[in-house]
Amino acid sequence: MHGARRRPIEPAFMEAIERPAPPAGGWTASNIVGVDNLSFAEIDYVLALAEHYAGYLKRGERPPQRLAGKTQINLFFENSTRTNLSFELAGKKLGADVINVPVAASSVNKGEALIDTAQTLGAMGAHVMIIRHSDSAVPASLAERLDFPVINAGAGAWEHPTQALLDAAAIRSVHGDLKGLVIAICGDIRHSRVAGSDVRLFTRLGAEVRFVGPAHLMPDDDQHKDVRRFASLEEGLAGADIVMALRMQFERMEGDGKVAAQGYFETYGLTYDTLKLAKPGAWVMHPGPMNRGIEIDGALADDPDRSLILRQVFYGVATRMACLDALLTGGL
Ligand code: CP
Predict the structure, then answer these.
(1) Do domains 35-159+315-329 and 161-312 have the same CATH topology?
(2) Whose CA is nearest to atom 6 of ligand 1?
(3) What is the mean pLDDT of residues 262-282?
(4) Which atom of ligand 1 sits closest to the CA of residue 84?
(5) Was domain 161-312 assigned CATH 3.40.50.1370?
(6) Distance 129 CA to ligand 1 centre (A)
(7) Residue 145: CB atoms within 10 Å
(8) Ligand 1 within 6 A of 287 CB?
(9) Is 78 in the pocket of ligand 1 (CB under 6 A)?
(10) Quick check: 167 pLDDT over 90?
């Protein structure tokens, strides 16, 4: 008798989910460097296509090899588990040749300019480049100069568009739609590119987004001016359908970032108790990687009846399959 718990296929995925039609007027985005690159119809298409591909993943079926013959380059200048590996899996599932550039062993370390590295990879036949970088301007600047598409896999503290799309896909899987939902984003919003992309996307999809946390972890006053800010979980979580914790991004904090975490869990940590401040049945989310016992209680994070965290990871692969397919084939 094996002890491992087998997850049944959810009924929604038992039968093939029809491939959606491309957006009326066609797919026009030539890059995904930010959420605002995409029209509403393109966002809707990506989310529907992600659901279509989620079915293949759930059923363990090989999807049509729509990217056969294409070369995908993953160029990551910062650490990543979820984004890097899910982009690699996504490309491979659709038949692309996927190359992860070993940045530490590349000519970048001999002083080569990033644009020269990128153009060199283009000359080798790249059809799409997935870039993660500490500088928020890098994906847009590469997209302007390269003659093949660029996808921002997280840059600086401003944008992580495919994370926002996969977060929306995970929310849709339990709520159907984001329209009218109250989504509380808690914690280190100031240093979070996820929060930036999430607020832009969720708001466009009709959700009310709130920021909850201490003043020193809030963005500057001139940023995200339309988002209501709350200093207490009691006020910020009242009526929330979704409560998202963010990682404390110590590496982006000035001085000793660990000071920011002192006493944080006691006041702002997500636990079964603090979740009672939200709507009954509210879900918790976290983009990962998470610090257990700092932003969120480990048992709550692991509870499949309250937490969407692993569902976010699952939708990461399906959503990135959808983004690659849409960008490289236009959905045709
Ligand atoms: N959410 C996210 O971007 O995780 P990684 O840093 O592991 O890619």
Answers:
(1) yes
(2) 80
(3) 95
(4) 8
(5) yes
(6) 17
(7) 12
(8) yes
(9) no
(10) yes
